[in-house]
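Before surveying the methods themselves, it helps to consider a single example record, giving the amino acid sequence and backbone structure tokens:
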Amino acid sequence: MGYRALATSVLVVHFAYLGYVVVGGFLAWRWPWAIVPHALAALWGFLVVTFPWTCPLTTAEDWARRRSGQPALTQGFIDRYITGVLYPERYVVQARLLVAAVVLISWAGVLWRWRSARS
């Protein structure tokens, strides 16, 4: 039971991380220092989606699932839990562009607020 709980915990952390990648830039509107960790998180998210890299959280979830007797993962986190659940698979490109747009809008807002504060 402990490994199953660990797998579930990693899954929750993965969802939280994905949420942070999408909307975390808006935290920098209030706390400007937050742009640095968000930029790093967004960069990692971009790299994992763009290149055939496996996220360490996916590896950790798979390890815990197998240790608990559950079947191994056959797909990555986004392919397994997001694509086909939150949006149809045929809209993968549009979903990625929407996420990129939200991140860029949050960063543009940070820049705008910084410039407004300096004036």
Summary: Residues 7 and 61 are 5 Å apart (CA to CA).
